[in-house]
Amino acid sequence: MARERLLLVGVAVALSACWLGSLASAQIIHPAELSALKAIRSNLGDPHNNLRNWKKNDPCTSKWTGVICTQILADGYLHVQELQLLTMNLSGSIAPAVGQLSQLLILDFMWNELTGSIPKEIGSIASLRLLLLNGNRLSGSLPDELGYLSNLSRLQVDENQISGPIPKSFASLRRMKHLHLNNNTISGQIPAELSNISTLYHLLLDNNNLSGYLPPEFSLLPDLRILQLDNNNFKGTEIPASYENFSRLAKLSLRNCSLEGSIPDLSQIPNLSFLDLSYNRLSGPIPSNKLSDNITTIDLSNNLLNGSIPASFSDLPSLQRLSLENNSLTGSVPANIWQNMTFTSKEMLIIDLQKNSLSSVVGDLNPPENVTLRLGGNPVCSERNITHISQFCANEGGDDGTPGDSANSTSCHIQSCPTDNFFEYVPASPEQCFCASPLRIGYRLKSPSFSYFPPYEYPFELYLTRSLNMELYQLHIDWYAWEEGPRLRMNLKLFPVVNGPSTFNASEVQRIRGIFTSWHFPPNDLYGPYELLNFTLLGPYSTMILPNQKVNISKGILVAIVLSSIACVVAISAVITLLVTRRKTRYQPSLSRKNLSSKVSMKLEGVKAFNFREMAVATDNFNRSTQVGQGGYGKVYKGNLCDNTVVAIKRAQEGSLQGQKEFLTEIKLLSRLHHRNLVSLVGYCDEEGEQMLVYEFMPNGTLGDWISGKTKEYLNFGMRLRIALGSAKGILYLHTEANPPVFHRDIKASNILLDSRLTAKVADFGLSRLAPVLDDEGTVPHHVSTIVKGTPGYLDPEYFLTHKLTDKSDVYSLGVVFLELLTGMQPISHGKNIVREVNMAHQAGMIFSIIDNRMGSYPSECIERFIALALMCCHDNPEKRPSMLDVVRELESILKMTPDADAMLSETASIYSGKSLPSSSSYVSRDPYISSSVSGSDLISGVVPTITPR
C-alpha cells in the first residue's frame, strides 16, 4: 500500500509538471505545413531509418531531420523555418508540397541520393534564403520559378545531373551572392542578364556543357570575387577585353574552354590571386605588365603562346606556381624568377616550363630547395655547357600539395585515453595529455585562390576558429588532399575546451553545426566558397538529441496549452488504471521473456540456444573475475559450459539491446559463417531481458594485446606474416563466400583473436553490413550507403566522407593492421596517423628505421613487399587498393620467400599454448574460390573466379 501511495503522489506531481511543461514546450505546427512535411517524408526512401524520429504529429521535435520551428505568427501556429536533411543517404524525390512551407528560410538536402526534378513549387517560398541541393542525382532543368526567390542568397545545385539552360529569370535574384551550378550537364549560352545580380560574389559554372560566348558584362559586377567556368565549350570565343576591368576579382578560371585569341592584360585587377587559362588555344605573347602582388598561381599551360617569358614574373612575392608548359615560348630561361623571393620552411614555388622552345639560361641556374624547376622537352636541355642542367630536364609531374601534420608529440600513455569510444589526445592542447572526443567534420574548399596549402594552413586555422568563437588549439586539420577542380578536401576535428568536460554538450554541437550549415563564416577571397561534406556524430555524440531553438509564447499558443493539459489528464488516468490492473494481477503468473522467446526463436544447425541460468552458471553469476574484456557491445566473460567447453560470452549492455527479431536475424547470419579464420559462434541466449552471444574461446587474446606489449612474449616476423595471411583469408571469405556476402566494417587489431596455435581469427561482426545484391536490372551496386561506424585510425577516409561502404573499406582497415604488425605503432598516437607516418618514411627511404625491433631478424625483401602491400591497401583512392583476393595471393607469395617460417611458428606456438598442439582444422569450404596452388589456403578449388568489387 505504501508503494501505491508513493506512486499516486508521483501522479499528482506529474500532473503539475505536465501543466507547467505545456506552458513551456507546447508546439502546434501549421496544418498546411504539417501536411507538406508528411508529403515530403513519404517521397523519401530511407533505407537506414534515419527519419524514424520524424514524429507524425510534431516533426519540430525530431532528432535528425533538422526541422526547426522558431517563429510564432499571429495565426498562433509554429512555422517551419529550417528543413535540413543533409548526408542521410536518403533516396526518392522532393515532393512538390515543399512549396507549402511558406516561412522556410533554409532548405538543405545536400549529399543524399535524391532523384527526379527540382519542384517548381519551391519558387513560391518567398522567404527562402538558402537552397542547398548539391551532391544528389537530381535531373531535369532548372525551374524558371526559382527566379521568384527574391530573398535567396545562396543557390547550390552542383554535383547533380541537371540539364537544360540557365533560366534568364535568375537575373531577378537580386540578393544572390553564391550561385553554384557546377558539375552538371547544363547547356546553352550563359545569360548576360546574370550581370544584373549586383550582389554576386561567386559564380561557379564549371564542368557543364555551356557554349556560346563569355558575357563581357560580367566585368560590371561590382563584388564578383570568383568566376569559374572550367571545362565548358566556348569554341572560337575570345576572352572579352572588358575582363581587364574587374574591380574585385580574386580568381579567374577558364581552363579547357576551347578559347582562342590573345590573353588580355589583367594587370589592373588589384586583388587577382589565381589565374588559370590552361588547355585552350590562346595564342600570341604573354602580356608583359606585372600582375597583382597577391597572385599565387599562373597556369597558362597547353596553349599556343609564343614569345619570351615576361621579366615581370620575377617580381611576384606570393607566387606558388607558374605553369607555362606545352606552348611555343622561345628565348631564355629566366633564373631570376626566384631571386627576389624570401622563402620560409612552408613556402614552395613550382616553375614548369616543359615542352617549349627555350634555348638558353639567363643567370645562375641554382634554385633554392623550395623551388622546383622543370625544363624537360626544351632545346636548352641539350646544352652540355650549362652546369647542372640535367637535373631539371627529366620529364616529371607529381603531387604539389603534401598533407601536413601539425600534431605535437607527447609522452602520454595510450591506455589512458579510451580510443574505442572515439576519444583521443588533443594534439595542440595547452594542458598536456588532455583527452577528449572531437567532432569530425568533412569540409571542402570549392575554389581556393592558391595552389599550395602549407603557407596558408595556420591563417586558415585562425580564420575557422575565430569564426567558430573557439581557441586555436581546439581545431586540428586531420588530413587534406587536393581534388580535381582544383578543390581542397579536408577532415577537421574540433575538440572541447580544456579544463572542462571531454565532450561538447548538445547545445554547443548545435551551435557549431548551425554555423557550418548556415554559412556564417565571413567571406574570404583566398579560401573562396566552402561546402560541408559531412557532420558525423560518432562515439558519445551518436545518441545525442540536439535541442530545438527556443520559442516565445504568444496568444495562439494557449490552444496548445489546453490541448497539452487534456493529454496529461488522459495519460494520468491511464497510469491510475494501470496501477489498479497491476494490483489485481500481481499474483497471477506472467508470461516470462523466456516463454515468449521460445515462440519466436529458431532452430539453427550447430548453434545452441542457451537459457539464462546456463550462462549464469558458466560465469559464476557473471563474476568480475571471469570478465576478460569490454567493448561497445558490452562485457565479455570467460565461461565454462556444463560439458567443460570453454567459451567467450558477450553480454549486451542495456543500450546495445536490439529488437528480438533483429537479434535473431543477426544470429541467423552469424550461424552461416564458417571458416577457420573466423571466430565460431557456439550459441546465444535471448531471455530474461538479456541478449548474449557465445563464441569459441581464444586463449591467446587479441592481436592488439600482442602488438602493444601487454603480453610477455613477442611475435617474430614469420608469425606476424601468418597472422596477416589468416586475417586476410577470413575477410576474403566474408567478401566472396559468405551467403550473402558481408562487409565487416570494424576490422582492427583488437578484433583479430589468436587461438592456442596463434591462428588468427577475425571476430566481432556487430557492425557488419550485408554486401549489395542484384537490383531490379540485374546489376550489383558497388557500395552500401550507411551511417559511419568503425574505429578511429582504421576508418577508410572515403567511407568516412561519403558514407559509401565497399569491400575496399575493409581492405583499408586491414592495411592499417598490417602497418601495426610491421611497426608496432598504434593507428593514432599523440595525434599522429600511422598511414601518414609510414608513407613519409617510405618516401624518404627510411622504412627500416620504423620497423618493430621486437620481431627479431627478417628478410629485407619480404619486409619491403609487405610494406608496399600495406600501403597499397591504405591508398586514399579505393580504386587503387588491391582486392582481398590479391592481398591473400601477395601474402602467400611473401610467405614462400620467408625461410623456416613453419619451424619458427610451430616452435613458438607450442611454447605459448602451454599444451600439445591440436590437429589442424578439417574444415572444407562450401563454395571454394581460390586455387589449390596457393600455399596453405583453406579454400581448395582449382577455380579462380573473377571477383567484381562491391
Task: Describe the protein's architecture and organization.
The protein is α/β, with parallel strands linked by helices and 950 residues long. Among the domains are: 117 residues, Leucine-rich repeat, LRR (right-handed beta-alpha superhelix), CATH 3.80.10; 128 residues, Alpha-Beta Plaits, CATH 3.30.70; 103 residues, 2-Layer Sandwich (Phosphorylase Kinase, domain 1); 211 residues, Transferase(Phosphotransferase), domain 1 (Orthogonal Bundle), CATH 1.10.510. The chain contains 16 helices and 44 strands. Strands 2-3-5-6-7-9-11-13-14-16-18-20-22-24 form a 14-stranded mixed sheet, with no helix packed on it. The longest helix is centred in the middle third of the chain and has 28 residues. It starts with a helix and ends in a 37-residue tail after the last helix. The N terminus and C terminus are likely disordered.
Describe what is shown at a glance.
The protein has 950 residues and is an alpha/beta fold.
Helix content: 10-25%
Oligomer: single chain
| Major sheet attributes | 14 strands, mixed
What is the annotated CATH architecture of the domain at 703-913? Orthogonal Bundle
Our measurement of the CA-to-CA distance between the termini, rounded to an integer number of angstroms, reads 63 Å
User: What order do the strands of the largest sheet run in, or round the barrel if closed?
Assistant: 2-3-5-6-7-9-11-13-14-16-18-20-22-24
CATH superfamily of the domain at 703-913: Transferase(Phosphotransferase) domain 1
Looking at the structure, what is the overall shape?
A: globular
Look up the CATH topology of the domain at 703-913. Answer: Transferase(Phosphotransferase), domain 1
Q: What is the CATH class designation of the domain at 703-913?
A: Mainly Alpha
Average of per-residue pLDDT values? 79
Structural class comes to alpha/beta
Uncertain ranges? 1-26, 398-410, 549-566, 583-601, 766-781, 903-950
Strand content: 15-25%
Total of helices? 16
Question: What gyration radius follows from the Cα positions, in whole Å?
Answer: 32 Å
Number of strands: 44
